[in-house]
Amino acid sequence: MNTREKLLDSARYLIQTRGYNGFSYADVAEQVEVRKASIHHHFPTKADLARAVVEQSRAAITEQTRLIEGSEFDPLRQLLFYTGYWERCIADASAPFCVAGMLASELPSLPEDLAEGVRAHFRDLSRWLETVLTRGAQLGVFRLKGAASAEAESFMSTVYGAMLTARAYGEPAKFSQIVQGALRRLLAPEQPSPPPQA
């Protein structure tokens, strides 16, 4: 892993655990064991560093959207992969909260270009979920009670709310309980309940 990647990993973790306003270049420098000048070489401002972290997340969503085009698309597996990722991260504290979620809570105090990146992340995620739910409804896996766009926003809100609940109670299992309920509500009546996440 090169220095730039280490800086991004450090910033990601610090944002997830402290928020944008809760860390400085000094914190990143200490974690990565470099001088602050080295960070400025790669990322002139803290907003540049945070924006690069958000762009990594957006790139991952873009890649998942591309995979939907494959012939082996399984909509339930897609949602289980998404929620299972967060369940594991919350349980082992490797990524206890989504970067964009943490930044969204600080939106009024963020530089505008960073704030726009955060909003774009949520738009990308919502579109991905809408695509998954639409395809799932077409395949008879999901039964949507409203427009796919509204169902996507509702499911996304549930996932982020579940993150908050797990953090507030200090109980990672709360995330799984809440998300499993949301998944069951999406499934068509003839579909079996989703398996518990590992």
Automatic annotation (TrEMBL):
GO molecular function, one term: DNA binding
HTH tetR-type domain: residues covered: 1-61
Gene3D superfamilies cross-referenced by the UniProt entry: Tetracycline Repressor, domain 2
KW DNA-binding (keyword) present: yes
Coiled coil: none
Keyword Cell wall biogenesis/degradation attached: no
Pfam families per record: TetR_N
Domain of life: Bacteria
DNA-binding region: 24-43
Keywords carried by this UniProt record: DNA-binding, Transcription, Transcription regulation
Protein's name in the database: TetR family transcriptional regulator
Native species: Fulvimonas soli
